[in-house]
Amino acid sequence: MIALRMSGLFAAAFAIAYTVAFEGHYELFSYHPKLGAFGWGQEAMRDGPVMHWYGAIATGALVGAAACALAWPLRRRLAPPIWLGWAVPLACVGAWGWLLRGFFLR
Amino acid sequence: MTTSLLILHGLLATALLGGLTHQTAALLWPARGGDGFLDAYRSVKAARFTRVNAALYVIVFALGAAIYPAYRIGVRTWIERARLWDISGLFELKEQTLAIGLALLPFFWLVWRDPKERETRLARLVVTALLCAIVWYAFIAGHIVNNVRGLFGQ
Predict the structure, then answer these.
(1) CB B130 within 8 Å of CB A8
(2) Is B13 inside a domain boundary?
(3) Residue B133 lies in a domain
(4) Distance of residue A31 Cα from the nearest chain B Cα, in angstroms
(5) Is B130 in Cβ contact with A90 (below 8 Å)?
């Protein structure tokens, strides 16, 4: 059951960190597809478009893993609740619908 | 190469869509013993789909991530130049929800380890339905974006 609770914590931390990283420009790295080049953090366009999606996923995974590592010593006394694993990702999916509404309301 | 990967991506996405819809239907709307088509559709053992659905999600996601640069250079630039903002938004929402879905997979796997466990029943219901909704949305949005020049190119 502890693996289940930790995986729920990972999903929740990932969803929040990914959303914040994308919206706040905290991506771990950027990718320039035309050049085939990577750069640390959020870089501006060089020659052609720049992609931040891979970097935002990396940020989410890193924060999710860190949250699990921090919670691991406390797992007996303060086990993460199971609802965290579905309620937070569900809320983040809803938040993305709200954040991207501008695309559909022009 | 990109076209071959795109076709493989689409074919495996169809298998994932079928598998997740079967699993979700069997969970949310279990068969009551009739012998019609819908009863047969819902009477599968939902837990048996978990591993294949999770594996297919990862493979389809990886294929999509591999062909994403070609989309970013060749398709999205065109969509933006054509000012098709709602189509661009469809894809934006697809990439965000799929990334969140990817992080849900370990949780999805573990809530299905014991499908009779009462404590995880609500989590099983929500996470399975959420993944199913994400995959359905991504499938439809992907098709629209894939056909954008044919549908909206005029």
Answers:
(1) no
(2) yes
(3) yes
(4) 9
(5) yes
Which among B100, B102, B120 is the nearest to A82, CB-wise? B120
CB of B73 less than 8 A from some CB of A: yes
| Contact status of B89 with chain A (Cβ, < 8 Å) | yes
State how many domains chain B has: 1
Are the beta carbons of B99 and A86 separated by less than 8 Å? no
Q: What distance in Å separates residue A17's CA from the closest CA in chain B?
A: 10
Q: DSSP for A41-72, please give it.
A: S-PPPBSB--B-HHHHHHHHHHHHHHHHHHHG
Longest alpha-carbon distance in chain A: 53
Per-residue pLDDT of chain B (154 residues; tens, 9 = 90+): 889 999 999 999 999 999 999 999 999 998 887 788 888 888 889 999 999 999 999 999 999 999 999 999 888 888 888 889 999 999 999 999 999 999 999 999 999 999 988 999 999 999 999 999 999 999 999 999 988 877 776 5
Angle between helices B85-111 and B121-146 (to 10 degrees): 150
- In this structure, is residue B141 part of a structural domain? yes
- Using CA atoms, how far apart are residues A72 and A10, in angstroms rounded to an integer? 12
Closest approach of B110 to chain A, Cα-based (Å): 6
Question: By three-state DSSP, how is residue B129 classified?
Answer: helix
Quote the CA–CA distance of A67 and B117 in Å, as a whole number. 26
pLDDT, tens digit, for every residue of A17-47? 999 999 999 999 999 999 999 999 988 888 8
Burial bucket for residue A76 (CB in 10 Å: 0-12, 13-18, 19+) = exposed
Its domain, for residue B12, covers 2-18+47-153
**B102 contacts in A (CB within 8 Å)?**
57
